[in-house]
Amino acid sequence: MSKKLTKNKKKILEKISNKKYSLEDAILLLKEINFVKFDASIDISIHLRIDVRLPNQMVRGTVSLPHGTGKNICVLALVPKDKELEVKKVGADYVGLNYIEKIKSGWTDIDVIVATPSVMTQLSTIGKILGPKGLMPNPKMETVSVNPEKSIKEIKSGKITFKADRYGIVHSSVGRVSFSHQYLLENIGEFIKTIVRNKPSTSKGSYIKSIYLSSTMSYGIPLDLKSFVNT
User: Could you give phi then psi for residue 90, rounded to 5 degrees?
Assistant: First the structure.
């Protein structure tokens, strides 16, 4: 097993040069150096020139990827009784306020929680559990909504959330290796454009330090920032 990994690692290193790649070339290279036997995730890491300690420089929000991430997003809907049927119809995987007690017991087998404003006060008891996992519903992420059906439908159709980490880096999955070149090009392009649109007004000078693409268990491939306008 280790010999095989070493052999694959050698093949990858032979293909990756020290240069920076255009988005088109980076996608082609990622497909070439993918040696895993499953449909690997394509991930992006964008390092921003921001100070996340300042509230007015935090970069977070949502983006609708044209072709989704290739992953079935598991959604928990915390809504009043009269909304339960509607959210089930649009694809919520788990529904009901009874899941609050289940979360208290340690259950968090979900990707996103959508809640209505009316139930947010009941989530204070599980905030310490949800917060560190990035699961706490947030109006800025459009996961707190008076129209949870719309939010869930959009999430199931490819809308994802993003947030810069403490180092000012935004990480996200933007597709799968099995996606066509065009699908990946459109997904990644839309993600980068959204990050650029979210540039804080207090961030001066060059906004994006670097962008790397990678697939599961592969090396990161640096993108040439000159190919992106207004970064």
Answer: -90, 5
The C-alpha atoms of residue 92 and residue 149 are separated, in whole angstroms, by 9
CA distance 220 to 145: 36
d(CA 13, CA 20) in angstroms, rounded, equals 14
Intra-chain end-to-end CA distance of the chain, in Å: 42
Name residues whose C-beta falls within 8 Å of residue 211's C-beta, 6 or more positions apart in sequence: 44, 45, 46, 47, 192, 222, 223, 225, 228
Q: Which residue has the tokens 């007690």?
A: 101
The answer to whether 62 touches 159, Cβ cutoff 8 Å, is yes
Mean pLDDT of residues grouped by 10 in the chain (231 residues)?
56 65 92 85 95 90 92 94 95 96 94 95 93 90 93 92 93 94 96 94 89 88 78 51
Q: Give the gyration radius of the chain's Cα atoms.
A: 20
**Sequence-ordered strand ranges (E) for 16-69:** 41-48, 60-64
Cβ–Cβ < 8 Å for 79, 119: yes
| Residue 152: both structure tokens together | 């869930």
Q: How far apart are CA 46 and CA 94, in angstroms?
A: 32
Question: Cα dihedral angle (212, 215, 174, 221), rounded to 10 degrees?
Answer: 20
Q: Using CA atoms, how far apart are residues 41 and 177, in angstroms rounded to an integer?
A: 6
